[in-house]
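Record minuted for completeness.

…
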Amino acid sequence: MKKARHKKILSLINEYNIDRQEVLLDYLNNEGFKVTQATVSRDIKELNLVKIVSSNGEYKYAQNTIVQDTKATFTRFDYIFSESIKSVDYAMNTVVIKCHTAMAQAACEMFDSLYWDGVVGTLAGENTIFIVVRTEEKARALCEKLKQYIK
């Protein structure tokens, strides 16, 4: 059922400009998927959906095209992260991202909007983001993944 629902969600966001979870919930219910808002929220996170600006200038859900270990199609995340960060490093299970002044909170918000394996939480200041992950190995892997966004 979950696989079919995920497939339907991807189909719906490609066909319609869906900008809110409630709208997606209505579409799913009309298609025979009896789900709650909490389920839709989890599905959005699991499918790595992000909001982008559509051709008419309004926001809509779209599939995030960031694929592990590859440079992918330009997304909002790509833009904000590549314009914001100066360096990425880690110490034990903490990843530290240095950003241009006043950019850390925007970059952190974009980071938080996606699912990252092993991430426990984030904290952003004016020009620094701290990311706590479960293990040093996951910190190293995340650090390497994020370094691709440094200009």
Notes: The CA atoms of residues 29 and 35 lie 7 Å apart. Residues 2-63 form a domain with the Arc Repressor Mutant, subunit A fold (CATH 1.10.10.10). Residues 66-74 have pLDDT under 50 and may be disordered. The radius of gyration is 17 Å.
